[in-house]
Write a structure and sequence with these properties.
Helices cover about 80% and strands about 0% of the residues. It is built from 3 helices and no strands. Helix 1 packs antiparallel against helix 3. The chain is an all-alpha fold and about 70 residues long. It is a multi-pass membrane protein.
Length: about 70
């Protein structure tokens, strides 16, 4: 009897990378749709409101990706 099954671990890593790629694509799309550079607003201008909106977007998209991958 084999105690270690590699397939669930491989699937978990594969879906994790897939989720990260989809999240980055979503961020890139939002970055292109907004009139200002969001990263510049957050880092250089210390715009807390943009940081909160960006964080909410990332959390929301992450939940959607997680639900879609999980099934």
């Amino acid at each position: 009897m084999e105690l270690f099954h590699a397939q669930p671990i491989v699937n978990s890593i594969l879906y994790s990378f897939l989720g990260i790629v989809i999240l980055l694509i979503g961020y890139y799309i939002i970055e292109k749709l907004t009139p200002e550079n969001t990263w510049k607003e957050v880092v250089e201008k210390n715009n807390i409101a943009v940081a909160i909106v960006l964080a909410a977007f990332i959390i929301g998209i992450s939940m959607i990706i997680s639900a879609a991958i999980h099934g």
